[in-house]
Specification:
Blueprint: E1 3-7, H1 12-23, H2 36-39, E2 46-50, E3 53-62, E4 69-77, H3 86-100, E5 105-110, H4 115-123, E6 127-128, E7 133-135, E8 138-140, E9 152-157, H5 161-165, E10 180-182
Parallel strand pairs: 4-5
Antiparallel strand pairs: 1-2, 1-10, 2-3, 3-4, 5-9, 6-9, 7-8
The structure holds coenzyme A.
């Protein structure tokens, strides 16, 4: 396969909307998908394609409030392309973009029932943030995403602790759109 990585562009909004419910096992996710990632967060959002066919995507942003914090909103991989390292590859690209902008850590969230996502994030070195309750060894933050929107919150340092402590403000103009490379 000729898998290629690139930043999202606005036309990807419809392509991701068309598959996201299916990729999340039938959960209604499309309504939660905002076009702003495909227009305003392109430097920190990526897709992987094979010959123009969508295989995986990651939508992320850098916090405007906490410039050292990078956040992943959604990451998804086509079901028949899982366990091939595609999501890991997307995260690595996101980490690189976030570090280039001065970020020191990354935050991601998932639903407590999403055991695959929890295993995946643990495997990438994320630690689970303390929550309000613990279920089956997993700390859960209650109502994180509104009433009933319980979530598991993951954090991961982007640099060794001694470097992270001395990280400065974001580097202006540090992000590049012109990225297209084979993986
Ligand atoms: C979670 C998800 C993004 C992982 O994508 P992926 O491309 O299959 O993940 P990778 O191949 O990069 O996996 C990297 C490592 O994570 C761990 N991992 C990934 N999926 C796992 C699973 N289902 N069970 C246990 N461990 C898993 C493994 O350690 C894996 O390494 P290995 O395959 O060498 O053992 C994918 O399952 C998915 O799209 N799920 C539906 C959408 C979703 O829940 N997104 C996350 C919340 S936004």
């Amino acid at each position: 396969v000729n898998v290629r990585l690139r930043h999202v562009h606005p036309a990807d909004y419809d392509r991701v909307t068309a598959v996201i419910d299916d990729w999340w096992g039938g959960r209604p996710m499309a309504a939660r998908l905002s076009h702003v990632f495909f227009t305003h967060f392109r430097p920190t959002s990526f897709v992987l394609e094979d010959d123009g066919e969508l295989l995986a995507f990651l939508l992320g942003f850098i916090s405007q409030t906490y410039p050292e914090e990078a956040c992943v909103h959604f990451v998804g991989v086509r079901p028949d392309y899982r366990r091939l390292g595609l999501a890991r590859r997307l995260y690595e690209s996101f980490f690189t973009a976030a570090r280039a902008s001065g970020c020191a850590w990354c935050r991601s969230i998932t639903s407590p029932a999403n055991l695959e996502s929890i295993a995946f994030h643990r495997s990438l070195g994320f630690r689970l943030q303390h929550g309000d309750v613990v279920a089956d060894g997993v700390p859960i933050t209650l109502d994180y995403a509104g009433a009933g929107g319980h979530r598991v919150v993951f954090l991961r340092d982007l640099a060794p602790r001694e470097q992270a402590a001395s990280c400065g403000p974001p580097v202006a103009g540090g992000l590049q759109i012109a990225l297209e490379q084979a993986v």
